[in-house]
Amino acid sequence: MKKFVFYISRFIIGLVFIIAAIPKIADPLTFAKSIEAYQIIPLFLVNITALILPWIELLIGIFMLIGFLLRGSSLLSIFLFIAFSIMIAVTLIRGLSIDCGCFGNLDSPLTIYRLIEDLILLGFAVYVYLSIKKGI
Asked: Using one digit for the tens of pLDDT, what is the confidence trace for 64-85?
């Protein structure tokens, strides 16, 4: 059962990162506008973040699906899900009404449900990482 949960967790994380990355790679300008809307990242970092982050997401997604560099990929996904969760929580607390930008330009408003989704994905990533450490 543990192996099943391990593989399902990897599959979900991989799929989410790939699905999130592709529209951002295709339209970095729109993604940069989404990043800027959070009003958290300094303006001079917005464009470089919009160009680099989707490729990192894509690589993590592919690596999680094929089982390559799982320890590093799962650890990096943990860091990303923590960062995303903090950004979402801070934005919600500040009362900003913005598009999530999570999956490109899908007109997806930022709500508490996005935070819950990221926290669940964080749990999957932690499970994958700890499973690898235990030698599953």
From this structure: 999 999 999 999 999 999 999 9
- Structure-block tokens of residue 87: 């950004």
How many C-beta neighbours within 10 Å does residue 53 have?
19
What are the extents of the domains in the chain? 2-134
What lies within 8 Å, CB to CB, of 92 at 6+ separation is 110, 111, 112, 115
Q: Which residues contact 108 (CB under 8 A, 6 or more apart)?
A: 99, 100, 101, 102, 114
Q: Which is nearest to 82 in space by CA: 39, 129, 48?
A: 129
pTM over 0.85: yes
In angstroms, the CA 45 to CA 62 distance is 26
Distance (Å) of CA 1 to CA 43, 44, 111: 46, 47, 33
